[in-house]
Amino acid sequence: MGGDLESGGAFVTAALAAGELEGEAGKPGPQVHAPCANCGVPLVGAYCHACGQRGHLHRSLVHLAEELLHGLLHFDAKGWRTLPLLAARPGLLTRRYIDGQRTRHVSPLAMFLFTVFLMFFVFSLVGPTPTTQVTDDAGPAEARSELQEAITEAQATLDEDQAELATARRDNDPAAPAERSLAKSRLRLDEARAALAAFDAEASRKAALPAPAASAASAASAATTRVVTEAQHLPRLNVKSDSPALDAAIRKYRKNPELALYKLKNTAYKFSFMLIPISLPFLWLMFLGRRDIAMYDHAVFSLYSLSFMSLLFVAAALLAMTPLSAALIWLLVLLVPPVHMFLQLRETYALETFPALWRTAALLAVAVTVFMLFVLFILAVGMR
């Protein structure tokens, strides 16, 4: 009797499995005992009991588009549970993840990488293009000062290029790059001098005109000066230091500021993870007497905090494209971080109000220090 029941149960199980493997909407699924495409274990259901992969695999472009939308919008439902907590209850989110409640929330490292990528992507779309110009409302004295400064910088660049060419010839190095750079520097100096001469000639001519005509000529001269200065693209940076490496980086910036800024932006994106190891020692010092707090806790705190700040900068960049007042946007950027830090510190580390307040003030100073160290690191790496 027991044998008959066992045989009947096996028959029913096989029948149910076959029915389950029919798939949805009448689509045939994998056969019983067919191997899993991922790990090779025989299938007995719609999903592999060893690795969890679905037995029926889609092979169509439509499914690829579906996966893309799922990855961006659904985020495995974790994103929609994590983002509200990250904005409103950052301390609760951090404490839950530290305590092991991780299935329902996006991990701090994944959130950090996603938000940093999003931030640099948005900045690359809406960021301003660096230019050198004289404003329309600049007076004659300011405009002439701009041109004189351009001549001074062009002369300094020419002197440096001449020194580099002399060094290359003395050391028997290839002199062609230095010669090309020297020719460009001479051309920039000649253009700057010609612009100043034209400005002075125009100023002399306007001095002999009646007042209404002189006013119109002033406006035209200011516009001409701005165009000439923009065409030269002369960066206003003439700094000397005791570091040959820093001086070389400054020379590279002066010769091609747009390329230098592009390289710095890319370097900042690639080395954004350096913000974490730079931050951890400062957080460790702030909780030096707490034996119940590990360095891992500080890492989770930093990752979620930096993720929120990245999203805040993204929001500010997008708001800058709207008619919203710039002062209001700056107020948002300046006021939100301290409040967010206070909330996250208090709930993550179970702090009272006053300990959370002074640590918030200290954390703001830490944030400025970390940012400056990060900028110096990026300059050292990106301007080589």
Detailed description of the structure:
By secondary structure, this protein is mainly α. It folds into 3 domains: 2-57, no CATH class; 78-128 and 262-382, no CATH class; 140-234, no CATH class. It has 14 helices and no strands. Residues 4-31, 129-138 and 223-239 have low confidence and may be disordered.
Helix content: over 70%
Tally of alpha and pi helices: 14
Q: What's the Cα radius of gyration?
A: 32 Å
Poorly predicted sequence stretches spanning 5 or more consecutive residues: 4-31, 129-138, 223-239
Chart the SSEs and their pairings.
Elements: H1 2-20, H2 61-74, H3 78-88, H4 90-98, H5 108-126, H6 140-170, H7 176-207, H8 211-232, H9 244-255, H10 257-270, H11 275-286, H12 295-319, H13 326-348, H14 353-382
Helix pairs in contact: 3-4, 4-12, 4-13, 5-12, 6-7, 6-8, 7-8, 9-10, 10-14, 11-12, 11-14, 12-13, 13-14
